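haha ok so turns out i had the wrong file open the whole time. this is the CORRECT one, sorry everyone. sequence first:
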Amino acid sequence: MQTQTGSSLTRRSMIAAALRSGFLLACPAVLRGQDDVAVEPQPYFASVGRVIQGLRSLGAPLAPADAERITRLTAVPSPANVQAAETILARYTLMRVRLNPDGTALTAAGDSSRELVEQGWRAFLIRVENPGALAVALTSISQAAVPEGSLSRQMAISREPGLAIGNLDGAADYARRWMGFKFFGSPPLAAALSGLAIEYRIVDIFSRDSGRKSAYLQA
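then structure:
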């Protein structure tokens, strides 16, 4: 992993993770002093509202008090209320990503708890700073996961990824691939970013196993 000279930003979109009794630990990569994007409150809150609907459709709604607070903040879309909403959403954010205009990505771990569910799914937010207004799909890969494209096809039939030994390349591949993940791009969200300066995406992560595991996610 390379680090940009004179900063603490990782050069590639990467997050390290470990699983121990369903606990996901992020690597200590940091992203500081980069909230220099101009945020229009009204489109920001409209986007946040769609994300909250998406979480609800996945069975992972915000805590009632947090949802109520954001509803009140949305009613008066001001810069101060954007900052208040950001504080709330940080508690649900697994990873913060900054997309540069050239398409490279810089990341940091978010503030969410990282408990996964054995043989189940958990939804997290990914916060995206997008000063270049790129309208691209956020994607990721991991050697420990079923490829997202394959997972997407399987999930047309079932929400459980094909992590059975018969679907993988032998015992070694089975031991290595213990997780699945998918970026949520169904209505009210779209697969691609909207180009807003700050927006959130939802990633759904599946864990097949319990016990201590480690993995990297790369965008």
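The chain is about 25% helix and 25% strand.
again sry for the mixup
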